[in-house]
């Protein structure tokens, strides 16, 4: 198999890589671009640990071929903070102690950011529904939900 040359934008930066036709976006992000925030949890799109945004759409990067990202924009958890300044969602996850092992946290952060971009004033039920595809084995979900609702309120200036 010959490798495919891909040019895409990741977290605002233009990047190029060579990939195998069957290689996943998750593998390229982690192994070629050294963006290790997205985690491989299940390899079937069921756990949410590898969540990224692709052209503003929340996707499981383990199910997207790396070649499909050509000409598109990819947003990962590494793109959320601005230098030393954490995104408000990252701050609230820490403030609410809504993480333990951290495997699920990057995917939850990316998913929550996508939710708040679409709905800046979600109900608790809407947050729970939106994050239902992100599995957490350590914390339970109450602290995560509270952190997202708190971040949403602060982002709205409430």
Strand adjacency order, main sheet: 2-1-5-3-4
Indicate the proportion of strand residues. Answer: 15-25%
By CATH reckoning, the class of the largest domain would read Alpha Beta
Unreliably modeled segments: none
Give me the number of helical elements.
5
Any idea what the CATH architecture of the largest domain is? Roll
Helix content: 25-40%
What is the string of SSEs from the N terminus onward?
EEHEEEHHHH
Number of domains: 2
CATH homologous superfamily of the largest domain - what is it?
Beta-grasp domain
What does this structure look like?
Helix 2 (88-95) crosses helix 5. This protein has a five-stranded mixed beta sheet, sandwiched between helices. It has two domains: 4-79, Beta-grasp domain (Ubiquitin-like (UB roll), Roll), CATH 3.10.20.30; 88-156, DNA polymerase, domain 1 (Orthogonal Bundle), CATH 1.10.150.120. The protein is of the alpha+beta class and 158 residues long. The longest helix has 15 residues, at 142-156. The chain has helices at residues 25-32, 88-95, 105-118, 124-130, 142-156; strands spanning 4-10, 13-19, 51-54, 57-60, 73-75. The protein has five helices and five strands; from the N terminus they run E-E-H-E-E-E-H-H-H-H. The chain is 33% helix and 16% strand.
């Amino acid at each position: 198999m010959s490798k495919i040359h891909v040019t895409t934008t990741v977290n605002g930066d233009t990047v190029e890589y060579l990939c195998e036709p069957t290689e996943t976006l998750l593998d390229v992000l982690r192994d070629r671009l050294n963006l290790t925030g997205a985690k491989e949890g299940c390899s079937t799109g069921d756990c949410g640990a590898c969540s990224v945004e692709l052209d503003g759409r929340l996707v499981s990067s383990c199910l997207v071929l790396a070649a499909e990202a050509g000409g598109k924009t990819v947003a990962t958890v590494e793109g959320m903070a601005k230098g030393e300044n954490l995104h408000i969602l990252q701050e609230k996850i820490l403030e609410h102690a809504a993480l333990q092992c951290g495997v699920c946290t990057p995917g939850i952060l990316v998913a929550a950011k996508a939710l708040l971009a679409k709905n800046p004033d979600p109900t608790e039920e809407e947050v729970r529904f939106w994050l239902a595809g992100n599995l957490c084995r350590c914390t339970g979900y109450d602290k995560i939900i509270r952190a997202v609702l708190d971040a949403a309120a602060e982002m709205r200036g409430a």
